[in-house]
Specification:
- The complex is a heterodimer of chains A (289) and B (161).
- Chain A is an alpha+beta fold and 289 residues long.
- Chain A has helices at residues 13-23, 36-41, 78-83, 85-90, 92-99, 104-109, 112-118, 125-131, 149-152, 228-234, 241-253, 265-288, and strands spanning 6-8, 27-30, 49-52, 62-65, 69-73, 135-140, 143-148, 153-155, 158-159, 166-172, 179-186, 196-204, 210-218.
- In chain A, a hairpin with a 3-residue loop joins strand 4 and strand 5 (69-73).
- In chain A, helix 11 (241-253) packs across helix 12.
- In chain A, the strands form 4 sheets. Chain A has a 5-stranded antiparallel sheet.
- Chain A folds into 3 domains: 6-51, 2-Layer Sandwich (Uridine Diphospho-n-acetylenolpyruvylglucosamine Reductase, domain 2), CATH 3.30.43; 58-172, Uridine Diphospho-n-acetylenolpyruvylglucosamine Reductase, domain 3 (2-Layer Sandwich), CATH 3.30.465; 179-288, CO dehydrogenase flavoprotein, C-terminal domain (Enolase-like, domain 1), CATH 3.30.390.
- Chain A contains 12 helices and 13 strands.
- Chain A is globular.
- Chain B has 161 residues and is of the alpha+beta class.
- Chain B has 2 domains: 4-79, Beta-grasp domain (Ubiquitin-like (UB roll)); 88-156, DNA polymerase, domain 1 (Orthogonal Bundle), CATH 1.10.150.
- Chain B is built from 5 helices and 5 strands.
- Chain B has helices at residues 25-32, 88-95, 105-118, 124-130, 141-152; strands at 4-10, 13-19, 51-54, 57-60, 73-75.
- Chain B has a 5-stranded mixed sheet with strand order 2-1-5-3-4, sandwiched between helices.
- The chains are: A alpha+beta (289), B alpha+beta (161).
- Chains A and B meet through helix 2 and helix 6 of A and strand 4 of B.
Amino acid sequence: MIADFHYLKPSSLKEALEMLSEHKEDCKVICGGQSLLILLRQGLIVTGHLLDIKRLDELSYVNFDEAEGLKIGATTTHRAIEKSGLINDKFRVLADMESKLATIQTRNWGTIGGNLAHADPAGDPAPVLISMGASVKVGSASGTRVISLDEFYTDLFETAMEEGELLLEIQVPKPPPRTGTVYEKFNLLASDQGIVAVAASVTLNGDSTCKRARIALGNSGPTVLRPKEAEELVVGQKLSDDLLEEVGQKASDGSDPVSDIHASEEYRRHLIKVLTKRMVKRAWEQAAT
Amino acid sequence: MEKHLLRITVNERDHELFINPKTLLVEVIRDHLGLTGTKRACESSSCGACTVILDGVSVKSCSVLAMQADGLSVTTSEGLENKGKLHPIQKAFLDHGSYQCGFCTSGMLMSSTALLMENPDPTVHEIREGLDGNLCRCTGYNSIVRAIASVARGDYREDQQ
């Protein structure tokens, strides 16, 4: 049973930020609501005000420019990203990730901004975006700021956004030349969240050594994690089975998974190792072609 | 209790309702408008029995706030037939026995319709992917896939509305 709330429906972003500023002490923001409605129904969230930004079309867009990279508005649906010609052409890994996020119905109504702001460590978009060095633009009635996704997640379902701030845009830099980025989750039903998930982005030097590596682990701790010791191991190296084995182990060591009905902590650690090895190898091979 | 005006078109009929803003789309469809073809089952976005077409796309009506459908059009399973004549997908489901207990059927029909609107000639793989948000606990998937494939290959062309 959902507790009663005052419903706020702004007709512009400006109005939304004013409403949020006025009610920020007791206000939740809903966009597609594909995660939030479940929490409201379970009584895990009770809010005095619900600010509905789903129909703010001014935040629904996918743009690309060579200098500034990719920009996705917060109210863009998962399905729009999955089907975007631009994203399929230039950021294929994002389209592939979206095509495996929940189910078609959820992707049709759920949005990228809502997903990221919900801060579920098992969410699909965050690991991929973190491996790509993405940021989010957030705004309030008093201005906007850009937060690296690396610093966006502070704890389970917690973000660096202050009260009165709204997630406005996702910014993804254009990948450097000779970069491969891949993502895979391990699950039993295709539409489930990952029991664990791993994204890897590898950039190579001209001599096929690794110039830069970013690895992001989903559902492997209270937030999406970057196992930096594993990343540092790879830089300057050439691809080998021994290296992958070590990288997988370091990623597993750097994780902090829970035991739950889906998997034990031990099994998750095993999966993180195996998936990290696979993802780093696949990203490396993609970068080399 | 706070009430808001909802203007919604369901199966080409316009409605104006005053609702508590926490009302879900499935509650408006079933409880306010009496259209019980749309089923409530898991109420957690898992099973797809409540699937309807909203603004041209399939959604799970248990997971959409009704106020978000303000000014938009909804099609439910009752809206598929036209003046007593079944929609091709409904005929195909009957001909292929695409239901056992029948509880998932209206959701399956709506996902099938949305799939064929977007992709009139899907492969079997694409049909299966198009149903990934709908569970049939009798596990009668094969007959459902066969029904959709038969519509796609034109077996019901004379029934097109």
